Amino acid sequence: MERPRLSPLILALDTSDLDEARKVAGSLEGLVDVVKVGLQLFSSAGTGALESLRGDGFEVFLDLKLMDIPNTVSSAILALCDLEPFMLTLHAMGGQEMMRAAEAAVRDHCRRGEIRRPMLIGVTVLTSMDLLALRKIGVSDSVEGQVERLAKLAKDSGMDGLVTSPLETLKVRRSVGPDMTLVTPGVRFEGDSRDDQKRVSTPADALRAGADFLVVGRPLYRAVDPRSVASEMLRSIGGGRP
To answer: Which in 10, 83, 137, 228 has the greatest CB count within 10 A?
Structure first.
């Protein structure tokens, strides 16, 4: 299915307050087409968050990082498909069987129900994690090595794209080829606070490395003038619409 041409900026709605989320998203209308609903907002507002934001004219990137046994994930994901999000995330650490089962279930469900199939996006290593954090959970490889291994597994398991930190985007792009959609969080201008992100980059550097979409949260959400910041980000990457 051909996807719409969208702004590369994805606004991460890092709040539990749906009214606040809709207000910030609305202030960026015309600059941002996709908003990210993560665990925080989904836990407080539930499916109403998607319904409201889609009603406001936004595509929704539903970032719940699903990971469980294959049957549980492939069953749970069908209810999410009925909400018609633009993207859905699964954690690649759940393994190939889980990802393949989810992809097959989604494909069949959306075909039979004649609803739009969401893009399934694999998550490899969280951008809040570094080498020490991996060591503490028993991963002996480097961050880059673990990311690349899981990225290849996600591609082989039928995922449509990947979440990649700015520092691994180029290597992942070379590993998975041009057809996978790469979504890059941890994007901010030089000198901005890193917050809890360990692996960050500027918008221009992330796109040059091969990212298709840039997820921006607190640099926009906390800005006095979010529209000005978003406009500057789009100018820094050459206008913005691929």
So the answer is: 10
